[in-house]
Amino acid sequence: MAGPVSHLWRLFRTGATFERTGAMRVILDELEITGWPRLAIRAIALPFGWFGRDGDPGLPPVARALQAMGPAYVKFGQVLSTRPDVVGETIVGQLRYLQDRLPPFPLEEARAALEEEFGPRAWDMLGELGEPVAAASIAQVHPAIWKPTGEKVAVKVLRPSIRAQFRRDIGAFYFIARSLEMVVPQTRRLRPTAVVAHFEGVVMTELDLRLEAAAASEFRENSVDDDRFRVPSVYWPGTGRRVLTLEWVDAMPLDPEQIEAAGIDRQDLGERIIQNFLRHALRDGFFHADMHQGNLRVAADGTLIALDFGIMGRLDAITRRHYAEILYGFITRDYRRVSEVHFEAGYVPADRDVDAFAQALRSIGEPIHGQDVSQISMAKLLAYLLENTERFGMETRTELILLQRTMVVVEGVARSLDARTNIWEAAKPVVEGWIRENLGPRRVVADLAETAKVISRLGPRLPGVAEELLMLAEEMRTRRLRGPLAVDVREMPAQGGLRPRLLAFLAGAAVAGAIAWLI
């Protein structure tokens, strides 16, 4: 396990690598840092450039620096590659090399991985394994023939030693997060360590391709009836921890010029990318959370094809409802309702003022409706939202990180196809449809029916729950008799979840009474 010294050394080498590869100069130029600040930065960085890593000289400087530093940094660069409004066109042009044009590892190592995974039967299933056609930060893809049927397939193979490399990078991220929490107490509200832990859990899934295969299979089933959207099928016998075999798809990359030449409406395609993401998030609660250009293709008929299912996001039913109402409130300019949803969801502490928060939300939403579509930026909106919610004590919600990040990426991809794409106009029919189907009278009746089923299954346990409730009430009464300050609500979860269980029982009893009244 790496210690603080090694993490400090790695951070030092990160800066040195930026200097050695020339990325430091590119960033200073793009950010227009001039005068004495530029001289000071260069004076500090220049002497230490020799300690940096070389990286691949075939890559442009920024991509070269991130690639040299490890897979976690490459993932970060892939996200930024869709945000020219954040980092500038020059840097975006360099970061796009990180999507699927990284140096591949030798074909012999891929063949060895197949034999290690499947043994001799590997070549009974697969034939004519070709040179890699795409090489990313964690794996690369080879064309092959599926011998049982003669069909062409795509074989994805993890890079050698990738797990150890990634854990090293994540260790450095943890070190930074914990240091921030210790040295800068104000950052604890953002829960940087929890954010890193969430990021680790998501990306570590990419390191077991059986999990990616399961995600692809589920995603395909969910979207099989979606108009002009397709997910390749999984070849399960050719899938293991280090190897994933998928249906081969013939399609073009998300290159605006190629798409234009094929006669495909770029604005329509950009809107469909946004709408498909929202449809999957709201309808299914399961969405592709890494929708950059390298993971999307377009068929000749305009069908959008998704690839690479290592990073997927999930939302439970309650979170989906809150998310949809927040989006709908911004679209319809109902800031009071957006504020109420934040309080109902527990995103903002209950002791804050609903109207004051609604006013802050209005200051975020109104400029959106008054700007030209080319000036509306989801990245800027989220930054402003974070700035305002900080004043109201809103903590970072780790379960929403992937959702927010994917919204930024999706908007960037859509804008790369057509700068006129308006994420709010594209989102409106999907969100309105979901609201209509899931928050109307029919949904209320369906929810009550589902609750009745749950209560009926718990019927035999109700006498025991009632007895436990009496015991809990007696315990609370005893504590109260000891003194007005004897009951410490912070101890309740440690005492068997006293308060949550009591509230859950009371809520269940109220619902049961409502259902009985309706019947």
Written overview of the protein:
With 519 residues, the protein is an alpha+beta fold. The chain folds into four domains: 4-100, no CATH class; 162-204; 252-438, no CATH class; 442-518, no CATH class. Helices cover 60% and strands 8% of the residues. It contains 24 helices and eleven strands. It starts with a helix and ends with a helix. Pathway: Cofactor biosynthesis; ubiquinone biosynthesis [regulation]. It comes from Thermohalobaculum xanthum. Residues 98-342 form the ABC1 atypical kinase-like domain.
Which secondary structure elements does this structure contain, and how are they paired or packed?
Elements: H1 4-21, H2 23-30, H3 35-45, H4 61-69, H5 71-80, H6 84-87, H7 89-95, H8 97-100, H9 107-118, H10 122-125, E1 126-127, E2 134-135, E3 139-146, E4 151-158, H11 162-183, H12 192-204, H13 209-223, E5 229-230, E6 243-247, E7 252-253, H14 256-261, H15 266-284, E8 286-288, E9 296-298, E10 304-306, E11 312-314, H16 317-332, H17 335-345, H18 354-370, H19 378-391, H20 401-417, H21 423-438, H22 441-458, H23 462-482, H24 498-518
Parallel strand pairs: 5-10
Antiparallel strand pairs: 1-3, 2-3, 3-4, 4-6, 7-9, 8-11, 9-10
Helix pairs in contact: 1-4, 1-11, 2-4, 4-5, 11-12, 15-20, 15-21, 16-17, 16-21, 17-18, 18-19, 22-24
